[in-house]
Model the fold of this input.
Amino acid sequence: MSELDIAGGLPISLDISKYMRKTRGGKIKTATKSKSDFAIKMTIFVLLTLTVYGFATFDYKNIDMARAAIGTWNNVKVLFGQPRLTYSTWGATLHALLVTFFLGALATIFGAIIAFFGALLCARNIANPYVASMTKSFVAFIRAVPTILWVLIFTVAAGLGSVAAVIGLTFHSAGYLIKAYAEAIEEVEEGTIEALKACGAGFWQIVFQAIVPSSISRMTAWTFLRFEINFTNALAVGAAAGVGGIGFDLYMAGNHYFDLRELGFITYVVVAAVIFLEMIATRIKATVR
Amino acid sequence: MSDEKMDIKTEKAPRPQDQTSVFVKRKRTFTLALLGVAVLFAVSAAVTEYDVIGGFESIPRAVSWMAQHFIPDAKAWSRLPYILSKLVETALMSVAVTVCAGICAFFFSLFGTKTTKTDPLIARIVRIVAAFFRNVPDVVWAMLLLFSFGQNILTGFFALFFSTFGMLTRTFIETIDEVSASCVEALYATGATSLQTVFHGVIPSSLPEIISWILYMIETNIRSSTLIGILTATGIGYLFDLYYKRMDYSSASLVVISIVILVIAIEILSNKIRKVIM
Done:
């Protein structure tokens, strides 16, 4: 206990123990129980339980793990160690890569256009709250359907080809970008919008003079991020739905010719493309911000 | 009143020419950007042989087709227990993959962050390994594993594991660097060892972010596992493919509906958890 005499003569007692929480045993508490702590622990517990339960109930079909693992390791060595083209040519592979690239680009363009208007409908600071919540739930539904299922559904209506792939990819792109754009729009300062409203600006004037200029850089960054994702998705869709591009070559090499070397060659081409895209995206993000 | 303020008052207002130039410039940039997108669109459509008009026409056709055929009927409902069992299996696999990959990625990312003061060479190697696993698409892993593991749940498990691991390692490195920098510095200043810093500084401060990312990856992996399932003939993806190829569209629609409900439920739940822990 310490008592200090300050110039005026008023004794101020600094009783630290008043601010300290102690356990029943008398030790100083260093951690406090809070709702978030409990939630974190519960989440971890539930996730671990589900994982253990999952491993216990999976149907492994009596697989010989050791043999499969050794086999896979040998395949990895062949795949990455001896890439070679047998069934396809350099030109055809690069053309397929370009097809996948442009499928992703088309889906991104369509997705961005739809998302721009969609985001205007569900950004909290400019939209009608009812319309906003309705749009948001609709978008949540669109995003919940896996991309490949959209592609397969559209394959029935539009036939196998780029139309089904692009439209299928567009659904998810639009859903993703609406959420991202809406967040970017919500970051726009309230004052800017209010000032324009006070001047008598109409809705579209506010959009193009206040919202677009101040959120375009974020939107561009998100769009490029989505383009990267769309490239990988176009690849996956090409493999699983057979809509063409380098993903289909990948599928043919792996599931039809059973040619690990060709699979390896295509993998290298794809990885190079993905890294290239990532580098561009990083550069754009750096210049935009 | 200072002289400076007087100066500002007497300064001339910007000339109207300068003011209009902002709008002109904005318009020019806008036009250029629009032109760039139009060119990209034209090239893309040409290379991919995309039929623009056909594309727009197919949308109403698809909607009307879905309204007619894509509705679960009595036969589909009778298959519901089987569909749900496959759905649960896929969901459990996504959780198991994400948790295992998350734990591995966390320990791995500790070697990649600046906070633990590992050798810069090790940190660089960690980042390169993470980039490798992230950039090889899960489709390639699925194809590769299919050779040895066959049509087994483990094929999908490992395919998703590798890509999730790569993705989460990078994210965790960024998160740890960002979130725990200040408390790690404080702990080092008190003379704590690396291990103590990790357990008392890094883990408590970055745990909420890490859990948030894991929840996000579970959601993503459920969607990805549908695709991997189609490729490797396992889980809910295979079931959809089976009904789809048999043209049993009403059963296929029930599969889609059940996936949608599961994904939305997980999304709502994770958002609730995020609100509490962040």
